[in-house]
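Q: A reviewer asked whether we had any structural model of the full assembly, not just the individual parts. We don't, so I'm hoping you can provide one. Inputs are below.
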Amino acid sequence: MIEPLGNLLRLRRLLDESPFDALVAVSPENVTFTSGIVIASQKWARDRLALVVWPKSGEPAFIVCNIEEPQTRRDCWIQDIRPYVEFTQSPIEMLAATLNEMGLGEGRIGIEKNYLTAHYWDELQERMPRARMEGCDAILAGARAVKTEAEVERLGRAARLTEKSLLAVFATIAEGETEKSMFDRIASNLLLVGGDSLSHVYVNAGPNTGFPHCDPSRYEARRGDIVNADIGIYFGNYLSDIARTGVVGAPSEEQRSVYSRLLEVHLECIDAVRPGRLASDEYGVMKNGLARVGIPFSLPHGGHGIGLILHEHPTLDPRNGAEFEPGVVVCVETRVRWPGQVGYRIEDLVLCTDGAPRILTGFFDNSRLFEI
Amino acid sequence: MIEPLGNLLRLRRLLDESPFDALVAVSPENVTFTSGIVIASQKWARDRLALVVWPKSGEPAFIVCNIEEPQTRRDCWIQDIRPYVEFTQSPIEMLAATLNEMGLGEGRIGIEKNYLTAHYWDELQERMPRARMEGCDAILAGARAVKTEAEVERLGRAARLTEKSLLAVFATIAEGETEKSMFDRIASNLLLVGGDSLSHVYVNAGPNTGFPHCDPSRYEARRGDIVNADIGIYFGNYLSDIARTGVVGAPSEEQRSVYSRLLEVHLECIDAVRPGRLASDEYGVMKNGLARVGIPFSLPHGGHGIGLILHEHPTLDPRNGAEFEPGVVVCVETRVRWPGQVGYRIEDLVLCTDGAPRILTGFFDNSRLFEI
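A: Here is a predicted structure for the entire assembly that you could use as a starting point for your response.
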């Protein structure tokens, strides 16, 4: 049996405090959060739903397609497994039957409206005309946002492996190496160190650093070029996400200046990850800080939570009123880009504690522009 | 500018024949199909919509978040780019404004109801009360299902690289190698040969072969064990997906028999990929064939289309009335599993032509159980 790592007691408490009679997890991250297991094909067979039905009272039920049934029975703590045959049976029909059986045919049901598709949503409403169906995305995201020690440990390990993989490549780039070659070496390292799979690997040099998500090209790094990378892996179902910036050869005055100003604001943002502060405050710290040091900023967020998915609650955006509390883990990403010219990025994983924030990505020193 | 590889003329024709005044592409695959480019963050920032609005008459418009605007302007053939600021502006509000501007405020609009989330769907209906909004998933899937020569070429290369990566490992497994080690070697090969990223890598030995999606373990392959693999990569935005089965040492009579009966049915299924046949016929060939040779079968499908996503139209399931036509490419996957005991899988990429089907995965011979 696979032990769920997340804080299911917190979920239980949030559900108890909520108006819902049951929650229905639909997304891969919330299915894994509640069940502890991964239904692999959720990623590539979008219509093949896996659904965890979590009632306020009573035991949860797990609706999965019959392909996934044997592994689910072997691995999952949830005992009430209900398989359906894809294409010939509707998972939503089974969901309605399950909710009715739980006595919730006229209940108030929370479901992930930010994941469930319009097609299934319409079907669900038709099949359960008397139930009151609403989005419960915020409850699930809120439960996941505060990590357990086991999750922090997992995220920290994932981050450290990612840092090592990147440092090993940055330390060995020679003038003339192509972006593609750097990409291949980083990707290979990420698997060698123990990554289960790649999440994202962006590594660029020179003018390509001015774009956020530029595929690796045949561009050869030249003396004086900025090289930046933003990379992550899947590691035991959890994600990593870090960014570092270097320069080929000695940095120019201008490069040194941009980086040190960016870093100054980055450290301010990290320091602001404290209990009681809001995600939107964090955005303000970044926006005001960058304005003060004369670096343009028009991006919609300054980072994000991370866990079972790459961008999770809380996003550090100007509208997000979520309050930090101990156990919240965020990626603070401070960056500047002049499209097609140059870009700098620094991203670190930060744990909110009772006291000062704890940086979980301290292996690859970011205190100066890395000299390649 | 990046040239779209898919058959946009077919899409145009299907739209002309449809009752819709415009189609709205929402999913990563259909955004890439219509625009030619990849909006990378669609994969990890689910709420950050990218939308291609494709009117029956007039030019398409592309709604993207401002983070992705510079790359979109640089790479995309669509000229009408409309950026929004995530978190502070609603992409659905911008979609409504765009449709209204096109004179379609009371029009009949097709949108991907199998991808758009319930939350955005409700918002869209509120913002456009006079429009008639319906799912157009089948039109987009139908357009993508018939591949262009350029797409067949890309899929074929992706498949061949995948076969080579797997063959190189199967050829060098020694008794005692762990699943994790095989996994690492295959994953590394898939990147070395030119894969942009991993899609899925399942490689198992002994009892674990009896599950479809079993993570690699420390289990060490023993003499007499079945070893099977089901793997794929992303290669220039297209996917690959192949499966092969081997045995450590000489196969037993029983193993040889299961494999040869499975292969017999597999080849029948491949031979049935001909113009005019239906996807559901294909399922019937597999089901009846396996019954005839005495192999149990309870799976809901016998394979699937492949292209910009792993499982695309047509799925080879008993309810799918899609007719094969030249240019359709499917993964035929024939497999048997006794959970926790043993499993065999063979999966090949097959192109429907005017005449006999063309197998695009002929590099790693499947004509007998591979002897490890």
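A: Points you may want to mention in the reply: Residues 149-170 of chain B form the longest helix (22 residues). Chain B has ten helices and 15 strands.
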